[in-house]
Structures are given as C-alpha cells and as structure tokens.
Amino acid sequence: MARSNVFPSSQMFPAVGSVLELVKPVTWFAPMWAFLCGAVSSRDAMSFPGGILAHGWMVLAGLVLAGPLVCGTSQAVNDWFDRHVDAINEPGRPIPSGRIPGRWGFVIAIAGTVLSLLYSWMLGPTVALAALAGLALAWAYSAPPARLKKSGWWGPAAVALSYEGLSWFTGAAVVAGGCPDGRSILLAVLYSVGAHGIMTLNDFKAIEGDRLMGLRSLPVLLGPDRAARFACCVMTVPQILVAGVLVLSGRPWFALSIGGLIIVQCGLMARLMKDPRRFAPWYNATGTTLYVLGMLVSAVAVRSLPGGMS
To answer: Radius of gyration of the chain from Cα atoms?
Structure first.
C-alpha cells in the first residue's frame, strides 16, 4: 500500500520542492491574470504619467498575493482535506506519499492563511477584505462541514468567484487605492459567472472518481452532454452581457472584438459537444484562452471611460 500521511513517516520535515509541488504554481495563472485585468480596468490606472506602470510595485505585490499566497494556500488546504481520497486515487501526491509528512500539510495551510491576511493588510483594508473572502471560500470549498466541492453548483461557483471575481476586484482595488469603479466590479461579476462553466468543464477529467467518492459534480449529476451544454451557456451569456455593457458605455469597437471572440468560441463549442468527455480538456486549452483574452480586452475598454458608476 502506498504510504500516506495517515500512517507514520520517517521524514520529519518537508523538502522545499515538495512544498512547491503542494501549492501548485501551475494554478496561479488564472487568479494572477484576473488580478492583472482588474488592475488594467481601474480608471486610476490612467491617472498618473506612465499609466499602470506608475503602480508597478503595488501591482507586483498584488500578483504575489493573488498567486503564490492566496491561490497557493487554497491548494494546500484542498490537498490536506483530500489526503485520504488522494491516498487511494493519487498516492504520489506530496501528502499521501509522505513527502509532506505528519500534519505539515495542515500547518502549511494555516501558515499560508495567516501570512496571506497579514500581507494583504499592507496593501490596504479593501484588499485585505477581498483576501479574507477568498481565503474563506478556499476553506469552505475543501473543509468540512461546508466542503462546497461536493456540490457541482456551489463548488465551481466558489472557485470561479475566488479565482476570477475577487482577484479582478483586488487588482482594481490595489490601483484605485480603495473600492474600484462600478464598471470594473460589474465586469468582475460577469466573468465570475462565466468561469462557473470553465470549472464545470474542468470536472470532466474526474467523472468516474467523483462518482465513486460521492462528489456531485455537474458531469456526474447531469451527465456529460447536459453538463457541457450548461457550461457553454454559462460561459457565453456573461460575455454577451459584457459586450452589451461596452456598447452602452460608448466602446462599440471593443464590444465588436468581444463579439468576435464569442463567435470563435461558439465554433469551438460545436466540436466540444460532439464528444464532451473527450474534448473538454481541448476546449479548456482553446476556448478558455479566448475567454480570458476577452477579459483583458474589456479591461482595457473600461479603464479610460470618463466618470464612475455607482
């Protein structure tokens, strides 16, 4: 039987490489990208000579918060509370393999939470509140009794809100030095809703495992075809609303760019629907790329708009 942290380990301290594997740097891109889009979307990004570059150190500090700290901590939290499942399904991961021995996984999760909160406070109270919300969602997603990941509705919603919405809000707040402009917040909300569909497609890779472990992901609940159709709708409608916001805001060319990205995504979705289980990873590498590109386009569109939005 593969060694798990449930059983004794002769190793006393985790190696740096194992800790880095635990916090999964590959997952940091999504919240860091959303943070950057939020920073670009802030009207204050245009307030000083040099634009957003004038806020360079604050933006860099915020990227560290969004990626290595908050997202990295969420990965450690998730792996700790999934350690028994991983001991069966993925025994080579750092905790079940014993490379993160004893209760070090839990210690790392707690330490990351505290460090993230202290660090976020240095960037301002608004940023600290956003970080607190993101960390609360991370713990609620993985830890009992909430364990939102067991639900195909609440689990993806928690991840989407944390990775996209709160990260976007934080980026705008860092540049604005407080609560961001209303248009930026609206875009953060819309792209968070759309990201629920991305998270649903991500669940296609573990349908059998989720079914065996009692995790009610949407591909398990609805079946692959219906779950894929739902995900496509959830991703498309918010982007259409974003284009509408840009038209009403006097940015028709940016809206047209978003519309073009939507059309291409719909073409990719047609292939996805031919075999959702086979093409879900492919779509996450293609259609999702266009989705996040649209985030940046819309962020650039709203940053120079005159006035605010209450």
So the answer is: 20
Instruction: Look up the domain containing 185 and give its range.
Output: 16-303
- HEC profile of 217-235: CHHHHHCHHHHHHHHHHHH
Task: Indicate the angle between helix axes 16-23 and 72-81, nearest 10 degrees.
Answer: 90
Is position 3 within any domain? Answer: no
Q: What is the 8-class DSSP label of residue 246? A: H
How much is the pLDDT for 216? Answer: 86
Q: Does residue 11 sit within a domain?
A: no
pTM over 0.70: yes
Q: Read off the DSSP letter of residue 216.
A: B
Residue at token pair 């000579």:
49
C-alpha–C-alpha distance, residues 15 and 99, integer Å? 7
Structural domains of the chain, count: 1
Rama region for 305: left / alpha / beta (φ>0; ψ in -120 to 50; rest): beta
Instruction: Tell me the C-alpha distance between 275 and 255, whole Å.
Output: 31
**In 3D, which of 148, 184, 187 has the Cα closest to residue 292?**
187
d(CA 214, CA 34): 31
What tens digit of pLDDT does each residue of 58-93 get?
889 999 999 999 999 999 999 999 888 778 777 889
Asked if residue 230 belongs to a domain, the reply is yes
Q: For residue 79, which phi and psi values (nearest 5 degrees)?
A: -70, -35
Q: Residue 257 is which amino acid?
A: S
Nearest-angstrom CA–CA distance, 270 and 76:
36
Asked whether residue 216 is domain-assigned, the answer is: yes
Neighbours of 259 (CB within 10 A): 17
Cα–Cα distance between 77 and 89 in angstroms, integer?
Answer: 18
With residues binned 3-state (H G I as helix, E B as strand, rest as coil), the percentages for the chain, rounded to 5, are 80, 0, 20
